[in-house]
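Input:
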Amino acid sequence: MEMHQIRYFLALSDTLNFTQAAERCNVTQPALTRAIRALETELGGELLRRERTLSHLTELGARMVPLMRQCYESALAVQSVAQSLRKGETVPLAVAVSHTVALSPITQILREMSRAFSGLQLKLRRGSGNEIGEFLKSGESELAIAGPLGDFWSRLDAFPLFDEPFDLFVSRRHRLAGKNAAQFSDLTEETLLINSQCEMVDDLAARLRAMNIRESRTHQVATQDDLLTLLGANLGIAIVPVGAVGSQNLVRVPLNDLNLVRKVSAYGVAGRRRSASCTAFLNMLRAADWGFVAPSETQWGMH
Amino acid sequence: MAERLRSFAEAVRPTDPRFSAAVDALIERLKETGAGSTAPRVGDPMPPFLLPDEQGRLVALEDLLAEGPVAVAFHRGHWCPYCRINISALAQAEGQIGPDHRHIVAVVPDRQKFTAWLKTDAKVPFPILTDMDNGYAMSLDLAIWVGDEMRKLMISSGWNPAVSQGTENWTLPVPATFIVGTDGIVTARFVDPDYRVRMAIEDLLAALRSAK
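Output:
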């Protein structure tokens, strides 16, 4: 596939009219037609049914539109990233990270970014799922990293990064701290610390209900920081994403039959043009090996 | 290496006639349309890149060229046996580049977990860079679409680049090789949509040694 062929095809899929597409791409109509035919030969099928008044996309053509758009935008992004290196000017990077997602796995990527882009200016925001969704909407943040944001907004582009399991954590002083594993029945007499702003709070509540854990014995907090502080002070126990716990004072006690996993993704706004630094950062997030966060991911295709 | 590539291609041929027929058809289509032929030619500037290596370090073509000429070799992925043969041949040849700073880099659409595996598996001394979504390859007119039939056959053979690439767009690069001089100009290139054929190691070494 050639860049100009894709550009012509995308213009054609917009206009469904060879004359208008040629005008938009600033080429003659025969040149555009030739390029589309070459693309069709390469892809092995017709992309458009040509009709006198209005052409329309074939099934293959319709399927190729998002794919072609992704290819084309990735290629433009690679070019703009490489070009922006030379200028040495200020490079803003506005990122929102859910406060249930640990920052430590991302710091290495940020360090690399600031080495490559000497003018990098990071604007990091933390918030609940809803808050970082709003940061994206308003354009305050260009990219977000969070657990599932649900159907918050149809214009969100999600790029899955890793699956992160939840598990039971207790204070070192807690009676369960010395156990190799815990059962749900161990929780009935405990006070559970709940972060009401966690992206997975509903899933967790459903899981607890299913296992007959009474919801009355809870303390509610609204930030992960507060949850970990209360947990460290032995004011309760908590079921949290394993990557979010860095404290020495807390002990992980594998909770049998929990089976709660969340997908941590990078989010951008569909149709909004991303800056070069944001694209580079997003590609690094996507390319990264997250095995140290979620070692359970299978190494598919390694043979 | 050419011999190893040929014998591998011959060895897989009789095992699944449907697969080899689909491969032949795809390559014929790509050859007919000259896939990859418009990629940078000898005398053209090589477009710059900034891509992460297998450890997540960002590598810029510009920085490599500041030290000496560079060979940029596109590969399809860790799962591709032809790429593995080619990469290990390149890894063994690296010692023969010469004492001055001349670099080889491999570019693949696979994510780091898989480039790191490839690097260890073939004991590769040079960086293996991740080109997410084949963006760099696409910008050089080097990306191809695998197509529905080939996709199904690949999955049933246990090859699923969507997993290692982290995207479902089913594109692959034409495995091309470029030798770039310190002025950023291409001094030699090898582009063949038939992924079973690669630039001969001795040609690559000769071109990299004579580049300035």
